[in-house]
Amino acid sequence: MSPNAESTAFRSALEVIRAVEPRVADAIGAELADQRESLKLIASENYASPATLLAMGNWFSDKYAEGTVGRRFYAGCQNVDTVEALAAEHARELFGASHAYVQPHSGIDANLVAFWAILADRVESPALKKAQVRQVNDLTEADWFALRRELGNQRMLGMSLDAGGHLTHGFRPNISGKMFDQRSYGTDPATGLIDYDRVAEAAREFKPLILVAGYSAYPRKVNFRIMREIADSVGATFMVDMAHFAGLVAGKVFTGDFDPVPHAHIVTTTTHKSLRGPRGGMVLCGPELADQVDRGCPMVLGGPLPHVMAAKAVALAEARRPDFADYAQRIVDNAQALADGLTRRGAKLVTGGTDNHLVLIDVSGYGLTGRQAEQALLDSGIVTNRNAVPQDPNGAWYTSGIRIGTPALTTRGLGTAEMDATAELIHTVLSQTTSGESKAKYVLDPALADKVSKQATDLLGNFPLYPSVDLG
Ligand SMILES: *Cc1c(COP(=O)(O)O)cnc(C)c1O
């Protein structure tokens, strides 16, 4: 590849866009500048490679390809077949899964595909068998009515939101909470850790059809072998949503009991978080659920996004390289260095530390709400997000926590020394911020915010983002 290939590619793309709507070209350029300047600690974000980004900007976007590889409802899908098959093959190899479905447009879509694959397998199929028909269109009106009621009356047990679970795991504002009768398991108030005996007890009492594990704000490993045993003991289907930590599974940091793929009946993920691919989703499963999963379209998806599947194939190929395992290990080393640096300076962390990519600071220790802390950090050039802590007295809006994560900064090349410096910046801002007259208001000396901002920019100075891309 010529040394300037990436710069040339992005410059030319912007020139073409600028000729039609210059404000869009300007916004794209401004986004790169902003990302380059900010100390991005958002645990769910990353920086995809230039190859991944470029794989999305092309005529695959023009193509309808409903169906699956080799079985499409549209003609002329041979090239889409090529990239979808490649993405699925890379996913199977990377995660050691027997089946991969790479069409979901996002994490929420991947979860919907999984839920309905499970419902189809465990509720719809037996009903069809009992009525001795092959498909739902052949049911009588009465049988169809009964089946619809039964599909809408199933139980799910998942992790509670304030313990780090996700909205799509059966919470009322999300469709999953309207579909399922949901109950949740939390964490031990003393340790902040999942108490497997309590999960088992909840499962025995509630008898869910689906047991869900996975999180977006739990800083520890989950033992998926134990969770599978719990699911088996009550006849539940075990689903793991690894949206946040898929990169750590891909990079073989989570192995054995902590690798969800060998233990779960079905695994869902996003592709854009620690996995560092394009914005999208994916489902992995064994042969038992494969046919149902492949019916994601038309069940909950329309046409797939072939340009994104092309980018998934590129990113998954990257994740199969040996240096990705090194990246994944550095993500965790960095998170632990950040946690240590914060703890040494007196910050209170949920569970006292981390063994994955994220750290949850309980900012009540600084006398602040999550909202106040998030804004004060943002004023100081540090991008994080507020997050509830277990049994949060400030609820889900103001919260008492700040969630920080290392996948993005690790991609830029920052290491453990820089994480200690980052901990110093965070602690400085939080300890110098005071609570204002409401849960959203705070007082922070603008000169201090400015000073920290400059220190953050200096810290990033040695680690250029997209060093190969010069927009001129
Ligand atoms: C991010 C996330 C999702 C949703 O992903 P989107 O692509 O934003 O729809 C689902 N589940 C978990 C656990 C997540 O962290």
UniProtKB/TrEMBL annotation:
<dbReference type="GO" id="GO:0035999">
    <property type="term" value="P:tetrahydrofolate interconversion"/>
</dbReference>
<comment type="similarity">
    <text>Belongs to the SHMT family.</text>
</comment>
<comment type="function">
    <text>Catalyzes the reversible interconversion of serine and glycine with tetrahydrofolate (THF) serving as the one-carbon carrier. This reaction serves as the major source of one-carbon groups required for the biosynthesis of purines, thymidylate, methionine, and other important biomolecules. Also exhibits THF-independent aldolase activity toward beta-hydroxyamino acids, producing glycine and aldehydes, via a retro-aldol mechanism.</text>
</comment>
<dbReference type="InterPro" id="IPR015424">
    <property type="entry name" value="PyrdxlP-dep_Trfase"/>
</dbReference>
<comment type="pathway">
    <text>Amino-acid biosynthesis; glycine biosynthesis; glycine from L-serine: step 1/1.</text>
</comment>
<dbReference type="InterPro" id="IPR049943">
    <property type="entry name" value="Ser_HO-MeTrfase-like"/>
</dbReference>
<protein>
    <recommendedName>
        <fullName>Serine hydroxymethyltransferase</fullName>
        <ecNumber>2.1.2.1</ecNumber>
    </recommendedName>
</protein>
<keyword id="KW-0808">Transferase</keyword>
<dbReference type="GO" id="GO:0004372">
    <property type="term" value="F:glycine hydroxymethyltransferase activity"/>
</dbReference>
<feature type="modified residue" description="N6-(pyridoxal phosphate)lysine">
    <location>
        <position position="273"/>
    </location>
</feature>
<dbReference type="InterPro" id="IPR039429">
    <property type="entry name" value="SHMT-like_dom"/>
</dbReference>
<comment type="pathway">
    <text>One-carbon metabolism; tetrahydrofolate interconversion.</text>
</comment>
<dbReference type="GO" id="GO:0032259">
    <property type="term" value="P:methylation"/>
</dbReference>
<feature type="domain" description="Serine hydroxymethyltransferase-like">
    <location>
        <begin position="19"/>
        <end position="120"/>
    </location>
</feature>
<keyword id="KW-0663">Pyridoxal phosphate</keyword>
<keyword id="KW-0963">Cytoplasm</keyword>
<dbReference type="GO" id="GO:0005829">
    <property type="term" value="C:cytosol"/>
</dbReference>
<keyword id="KW-0028">Amino-acid biosynthesis</keyword>
<dbReference type="InterPro" id="IPR015421">
    <property type="entry name" value="PyrdxlP-dep_Trfase_major"/>
</dbReference>
<feature type="binding site">
    <location>
        <begin position="165"/>
        <end position="167"/>
    </location>
    <ligand>
        <name>(6S)-5,6,7,8-tetrahydrofolate</name>
    </ligand>
</feature>
<feature type="domain" description="Serine hydroxymethyltransferase-like">
    <location>
        <begin position="153"/>
        <end position="426"/>
    </location>
</feature>
<dbReference type="InterPro" id="IPR015422">
    <property type="entry name" value="PyrdxlP-dep_Trfase_small"/>
</dbReference>
<feature type="binding site">
    <location>
        <position position="161"/>
    </location>
    <ligand>
        <name>(6S)-5,6,7,8-tetrahydrofolate</name>
    </ligand>
</feature>
<keyword id="KW-0489">Methyltransferase</keyword>
<dbReference type="GO" id="GO:0019264">
    <property type="term" value="P:glycine biosynthetic process from serine"/>
</dbReference>
<dbReference type="Pfam" id="PF00464">
    <property type="entry name" value="SHMT"/>
</dbReference>
<feature type="site" description="Plays an important role in substrate specificity">
    <location>
        <position position="272"/>
    </location>
</feature>
<keyword id="KW-0554">One-carbon metabolism</keyword>
<dbReference type="GO" id="GO:0030170">
    <property type="term" value="F:pyridoxal phosphate binding"/>
</dbReference>
<dbReference type="InterPro" id="IPR019798">
    <property type="entry name" value="Ser_HO-MeTrfase_PLP_BS"/>
</dbReference>
<dbReference type="InterPro" id="IPR001085">
    <property type="entry name" value="Ser_HO-MeTrfase"/>
</dbReference>
<dbReference type="GO" id="GO:0008168">
    <property type="term" value="F:methyltransferase activity"/>
</dbReference>
<comment type="subunit">
    <text>Homodimer.</text>
</comment>
